[in-house]
Design goal:
- By secondary structure, the protein is an alpha+beta fold.
- Helices cover about 35% and strands about 25% of the residues.
- It has helices at about 1-15, 20-35, 75-85, 150-160, 165-170; strands at about 40-45, 65-70, 105-110, 115-120, 125-135, 140-145.
- It has a six-stranded antiparallel sheet with strand order 2-1-3-4-5-6, with helices on one face.
- It is globular and about 35 Å long.
C-alpha cells in the first residue's frame, strides 16, 4: 500500500512540475539537452573497497569512489539517453540516500561541451543517481530513483562496456 501511495505522489509531483516523463523529472531540461547531443561519453567503475555501512571511515568525496575506466564510444550516449528517458525505466523515486546503503559500482559521464550528466548505478539495490553539472562544476540537479524495471537493460549495456571487470562480469 505504501508503494502505491509513493507512486501516486510521484505522478502528482511530475504533473505539477510539468514533466512529461520520469526521465524529464530526474534529469531536468539541462540534463535532457546534454543527453540529446553528447560530445563525449566516459565510463567509470568503483575503484576502492567501500567501508561497511555505518562505518565512520567513509570516503569524504564521491569523486574518490569512482576512477575513470575509459572513454567509450559516443554511440553509448544515445543508448544511455534512451534508457534514462523511458517512462518504464523507473519504478518510483528512491527514498534513500548515500548513508543508507547506496554504493554505485559503475557510472557513466555524458558530456556536452563543458556540461555533463553523471549516471551512477547500484545494481544491488537497483538504484540510479542522476547528477547534472554545469561548466562551473556545480550540480544543478541531483535525484535518485529505482531502476529495477530496467535492470537487465542497464546491465547488458554495462557488461558490453566493462567486459573484463570481474564484479560486472559475474552480475546477473
Amino acid at each position: 500500500m505504501a508503494a502505491v501511495r509513493i507512486g501516486v505522489l510521484f505522478a502528482l509531483t511530475m504533473l505539477s512540475t510539468g514533466c512529461a516523463t520520469r526521465g524529464d523529472w530526474l534529469l531536468g531540461s539541462k540534463g535532457v539537452d546534454i543527453l540529446k547531443s553528447p560530445t563525449k561519453v566516459e565510463a567509470y567503475h568503483s575503484a576502492v573497497v567501500l567501508p561497511p555501512p555505518g562505518s565512520r571511515d567513509a570516503v569524504d568525496s564521491e569523486a574518490e569512489l569512482m576512477k575513470p575506466a575509459q572513454e567509450i564510444d559516443l554511440g553509448y550516449g544515445p543508448r544511455i539517453s534512451k534508457l534514462l528517458l523511458r517512462n518504464d525505466t523507473y519504478l518510483t523515486p528512491a527514498l534513500i540516500h548515500r548513508t543508507s546503503g547506496f554504493y554505485p559500482i559503475v557510472a557513466y559521464r555524458v558530456w556536452k561541451g563543458a556540461d555533463w550528466v553523471d549516471v551512477q548505478l547500484d545494481f544491488d539495490l537497483d538504484v540510479i543517481q542522476i547528477r547534472v553539472f554545469d561548466s562551473e562544476h556545480d550540480a544543478t540537479t541531483k535525484k535518485m530513483a529505482f531502476f529495477d524495471k530496467s535492470h537487465s537493460r542497464f546491465l547488458r549495456m554495462t557488461k558490453e562496456v566493462f567486459i573484463t571487470y570481474p564484479p560486472i562480469v559475474v552480475m546477473q
